[in-house]
Amino acid sequence: MVMGCVFKHHVYLCVVSTAMLAGLSLITSHTKAYAQNQKCGTVSSDGSGVVNEPIVCDRGETTVLNTSSGSSKIEIKMNMHPGEEAAVTIKNRADIIATKKLKVTVTGWSGKGPVIKVLSGGELTLKGGVDVTGVGVTGKVIEVNGGGTLMLMGESKIKVEGSGTGLVGVQMGGTEKLMMMRNVTFEGVTEGINIKGSMGGVMVMGLGGTTMTVNGKGSGVNGVVGIKVEDTKAIDATVMGLKIVGEGTGSGGKGVEFIGTGKGGRGR
Fold first, then answer.
1. Which of 30, 94, 134, 222 lies 20 to 30 Å from 127 when distance is taken between CA atoms?
2. How many structural domains compose the chain?
3. Closest CA to 244 of 211, 218, 222, 267
């Protein structure tokens, strides 16, 4: 792995490059199939694209996510659904493609996060990117776990406020993939991406000169971290093709940090 980092006055710049895993398929082939689940596929919305309920896709088929209106975005306002667990849940090998921008506002939501979940082999491709904004999320904003895949093809921004320290932009396990084809910004977080697991191989990849910006809240010697890998046994983490920039409080800001008790926590 080749990595260069500069950290000065609470601002860090880190470029990570590594060899690509053999046989990795960057773009999953998709077929045209449409879910019958009313919370997936073409979801009911008003004229401005605000959907009537959170999105849940839990069938092992390929689905194009759309709204019943002609709006250019898919918008979810969680104050309208205060008791729901998440704004978007993709699971059980569901393969979802959203061609429109996904926008989620979390202010007024009683949930604590994650706002978006990609679990149990699910795949979510956001061609228009994603914006998450608001106050009140704790823990993690997006969770990709259980072998899930998240692909951000459009510029994306995660901006959360008033949540204190310790907030993670994207939480991953040990066998997931996160691919970013446009610039991604995290604001108000302590860690942009956290990878925590014991076994398996996980990948975070940027394509086409992707920049990941992390501006957030650290504490004391624990500054803001772009990507943190926490290994409890022997995880194989690959980070490649990203320029990581950011700033925040705390004195120990880092672009990429590997910690843990096992023999893993390494990049390629």
1. 134
2. 1
3. 211
